[in-house]
Amino acid sequence: MYCKQCGKEIPNDSEYCNFCGAGQNFKSKYQFSYKERWLALSLTIL
Ligand SMILES: [Zn+2]
Fold this sequence. Notes:
There is one protein chain. The protein has 46 residues and is mainly alpha-helical. It contains one helix and no strands. It is rod-shaped and about 45 Å long. It starts with 25 loop residues before the first helix and ends with a helix. The site of zinc ion has 8 residues, from loops.
């Protein structure tokens, strides 16, 4: 796969780019779960 930050080729299972140190899967996963959690919380309140 290729780094989302700098575009260099890195191993497929890398969490971080070997070249620039950018996280690869962590960021989007975190944003998705955060949004889901927020929606679930607001539904619980209502
Ligand atoms: Zn990179």
